[in-house]
Design goal:
Elements: E1 2-5, H1 9-18, E2 24-30, E3 33-39, E4 45-52, E5 58-60, E6 64-69, H2 70-77, E7 85-91, E8 94-100, E9 104-110, E10 128-133, H3 134-147, E11 150-156, E12 159-165, E13 169-174, E14 179-182, E15 186-191, H4 192-202, E16 207-212, E17 218-223, E18 228-233
Antiparallel strand pairs: 1-5, 1-7, 2-3, 2-6, 3-4, 4-18, 7-8, 8-9, 10-14, 10-16, 11-12, 11-15, 12-13, 16-17, 17-18
């Protein structure tokens, strides 16, 4: 296996985001590219990461599954500069990582055994799809985190609302002018602890797509020319105060 990435910044940021949800993953390398699918220890959230073969300048591999400690990989990837290129090569039970810029720097990462079944993103039905500017989603979720530990995604009369209520409240409202809304009336509540982690990925692209339904899991999609991240988050079903 030998993979070369000319601009590893997106990969580094994606690994950083995923590492906030899980500590160890199985990285699959196939003829289609590189992928990760993992569930957080609390079984509340799921993440899927894809980097297509086309994102790499060199891609030579047979099918491989690499057991990786994400914290260790994250620390190495952060050593990449803005002009660095990255080469990943598997040798025996090691992942050799070469960072090339003015000089060549080599790291060896020990591969680990991860005893878990292969996971796939579930096929879920959603009644609502909202595509909005990532910066607006980030601001709205961060507003809610100031006043509560959960927020609701609401579709009401073809408007998309993000709101949180406790002793205090926060609310952002989007019409069809500010977002693409294909939806029916519904409401679902989600943990802000997880949403705050997810929206770090929204910073990587201009638009974020949200799929949800009434008291239903949320699917968040972030896609760039080089990577794709999907998150699933279970709803918080409880009586409204």
């Amino acid at each position: 296996m030998l993979l070369k990435l000319e601009n590893p910044t997106l990969l580094s940021k994606a690994v950083d985001i995923i590492s906030e949800l899980v500590t160890e993953v199985r990285i699959k390398v196939s003829e289609y590219g590189l992928s990760i699918t993992a569930i957080d220890p609390a079984n509340v959230a799921m993440v899927e990461f894809k980097a297509p073969k086309s994102a790499f300048s060199q891609f030579e591999t047979d099918p491989e599954v690499l057991g990786i400690n994400l914290d260790s990989l994250k620390r190495i990837l952060k050593r990449c500069g803005s002009g660095s290129s990255l080469i990943l090569e598997k040798r025996d039970n090691l992942l050799n990582i070469l960072i090339q810029d003015r000089i060549k720097r080599n790291f060896s990462l020990n591969l680990i055994e991860i005893e878990s079944e292969d996971k796939e993103m579930p096929n879920l039905d959603f009644s609502s799809r909202v595509e909005l500017n990532s910066v607006d989603l980030i601001d709205s979720v961060e507003d809610c985190s100031v006043v509560a530990d959960a927020c609701s995604f609401v579709i009401e009369e073809n408007k998309f609302i993000i709101e949180a209520r406790s002793l205090n409240s926060a609310r952002s409202e989007f019409s069809g002018d500010e977002a693409s809304i294909q939806a029916e009336n519904c409401r679902s509540k989600y943990s802000l602890e997880y949403l705050i982690k997810f929206i770090k990925a929204s910073k990587l692209c201009e638009k974020t797509v949200l799929n949800f339904a009434n008291d239903h899991p949320l699917k968040m999609n972030i896609k760039t020319p080089g990577i794709e991240l999907n998150f699933i988050l279970a709803p918080r079903v409880e009586t409204e105060d």
